[in-house]
Amino acid sequence: MKPRVATVWLGGCSGCHMSLLDLDERLIDLADRIELVYSPIADMKVFPRDVDVTLVEGAVANIEHEEFAHIIRRNSRFVVSFGDCAVTGNVTAMRNGLDTEGVLHRSYVELADVTPRIPRGYPTIAELLKEARPLHEFVRVDAFIHGCPPTADQIWSAVSELLQGRTPALTHVFLRYG
Fold first, then answer.
1. For labeling, which of 30, 36, 49, 108 is most exposed (least CB within 10 Å)?
2. What is the mean pLDDT of residues 133-150?
3. If we measure between CA atoms, which residue out of 177, 94, 76, 167 comes closest to residue 133?
4. In whole angstroms, what is the distance from residue 174 CA to residue 136 CA?
């Protein structure tokens, strides 16, 4: 049975997933070795149970991300913070020093062309958390792949180790944060 692998994109730019695609011909080898059960690069709607490895890109920036982080942790044997936004908050967390309500007011009221109001209570627009935070502040994370974004070689090395049932022991993959 092939390992069940998922990739997730929270609050980030998708650069980590672009680096994953930069595996180029190694993607063919990877496709032969795994069952991709969830990813923004595939059209799956519900995060599955019994996932062996989940790579999580992006900071936890809104209430939907926070809920999703807990779903991922419950359903994944091994969770990896994938890139600096997931590891430290990085660029996504640059908003942390700003008044969130002020930013929303400026964006949705002051600069509105039509119907000036802050979107609230819409099922498709998640409420922002006061601060964007790294994944490990919400759920237990088993490994951290640093980089903005990590290189394809870093991703390949880490994923190859994980798929062989080994914890990555590479200089660019840290098993603890801080």
1. 49
2. 94
3. 94
4. 13
Q: Which residues contact 115 (CB under 8 A, 6 or more apart)?
A: none
Topology, domain 4-97+131-174: Rossmann fold (3.40.50)
Q: How many CA atoms lie within 13 A of 94 on its CB side?
A: 5
Instruction: Dig out the tokens for 88 from the structure.
Output: 């430290």
In this structure, are residues 62 and 11 in contact, taking their beta carbons and an 8 Å threshold?
A: yes
The two three-digit tokens of residue 86, written as one number:
């997931």
How far apart, in Å, are the Cα atoms of 108 and each of 28, 78, 93?
44, 39, 21
Give the DSSP letter string of 35-67.
EEEE-TTTT--SPPSSEEEEEEESBEEEHHHHH
174 pLDDT more than 70: no
Length of the chain: 178
Tell me, what's the pLDDT at 125? Answer: 84
80 and 53 Cβ atoms separated by less than 8 Å:
yes
Percent of the chain whose predicted confidence (pLDDT) is above 90 = 72
Half-sphere exposure (Cβ direction) of 172: Cα atoms closer than 13 Å: 18
Place of tokens 């490994």: 143
Looking at residue 178, its pLDDT comes to 42
Helix (H) or strand (E) holding 104: helix 100-105
